[in-house]
C-alpha cells in the first residue's frame, strides 16, 4: 500500500492541531503547579540495643503536578520515613529520608533529605528502692519497719542517663491507718528514656498497738528564793502520768520531767500549773500538765555554841626527900 501524503496531509495536520489545542487548553485550565507539604517523619526498625536521638519531627516535601491533582492532596497522602536498622554502633550518623508520594505527582526535593542522628548504647543496672512514709498513723498504734518487694530493681536506658540514677524512691501516705497495710505502688525513674523492671513494688507497713506505761513526774526548778529563804518540801499532783510510746522508746524511760518552774525571789509558798515535756519518741503523755507546790521557808540562823569551860589542871606531885 502506497502512502499518499497529499491525500492524508490534511488529516495529519488536523490531528496535530487538535493535540496542540488540547495541550493549550489543558495548560490554561489545569496548569502544572508546585506545592510544599509539611509531613511527619517516622522512624522505622529502631534497634533495641541503641537509643537514637536527633530526628526532626517533620520534613518539608516539594511536589509538582497538575493543579486539579495538587488541589486534592493532603499531608496524609505522603509519608516520610527513616530506616534505623542500619545503626550498628554508637555515635553520629547521617541517614536518608525516604518519601512515599502519590504517583500523579513528582517529588522535586525534600528538606532535609539527610538527617543526622546520635546513637547511644542501651545499658542496664540494678539499683535499690527506698521508701518514705508520709503522715501519722492513728492514735494508739505504731508503724513498724516497712518491707519492700522487690527491694532491688533493674533500670534500662542510655548509658549517660543511667549514670545519674543511684536509687529509686517511692512514697506512701499512712495518715490515720490503724492496721497493717499492703500497697502496690508504681515505680517511676523520673528520667525520660529510662525504664524500671519491674515497674511496680509491693509495700507492707506493719501496724501494732503502742505501749502505755505509768511513770513518775520529776519537778524541775530554776532560780533561787529571796535572800534568807530556802526551798523546803515540793509536791506534784498527780504524781504519775500515762506515757504512750513505741516499745523500744518506753523501755528507756524512767520519769517524765516538767518544764522548769522559776522560783527566783520567792519569799513564800508557790503553787502553779506546769506543763510536762513529751519525752523524745513518745506519742502522748496524759495528762500533759500537773500542779506543782513548792514550800519556801526562812533560813534558820545558827545559835552560837556556849563556851567550853577550861579543863582543870591537876597540882604537881610533891617530892619526898629521904634523909
Overview of the molecule:
This protein has 3 domains: 31-112, RNA Polymerase Alpha Subunit, Chain A, domain 2; 122-209, YbbR-like domain (RNA Polymerase Alpha Subunit, Chain A, domain 2); 211-298, RNA Polymerase Alpha Subunit, Chain A, domain 2 (Beta Complex). Helix content is 11%, strand content 48%. It contains 4 helices and 25 strands. The chain has helices spanning 5-29, 67-70, 159-162, 247-250, and strands at residues 32-44, 50-53, 58-66, 79-83, 91-96, 98-100, 106-111, 114-134, 141-143, 147-149, 152-158, 168-173, 181-186, 195-197, 200-205, 207-209, 211-218, 221-222, 229-237, 240-245, 256-257, 261-262, 270-275, 282-286, 289-298. The protein starts with a helix and ends in a 25-residue tail after the last strand. The relative contact order is 0.10.
Fold topology:
Layout: H1 5-29, E1 32-44, E2 50-53, E3 58-66, H2 67-70, E4 79-83, E5 91-96, E6 98-100, E7 106-111, E8 114-134, E9 141-143, E10 147-149, E11 152-158, H3 159-162, E12 168-173, E13 181-186, E14 195-197, E15 200-205, E16 207-209, E17 211-218, E18 221-222, E19 229-237, E20 240-245, H4 247-250, E21 256-257, E22 261-262, E23 270-275, E24 282-286, E25 289-298
Parallel strand pairs: 1-4, 8-12, 17-21, 18-22
Antiparallel strand pairs: 1-3, 2-8, 3-7, 4-6, 5-8, 8-11, 9-16, 10-15, 11-14, 13-15, 17-20, 19-25, 20-24, 23-25
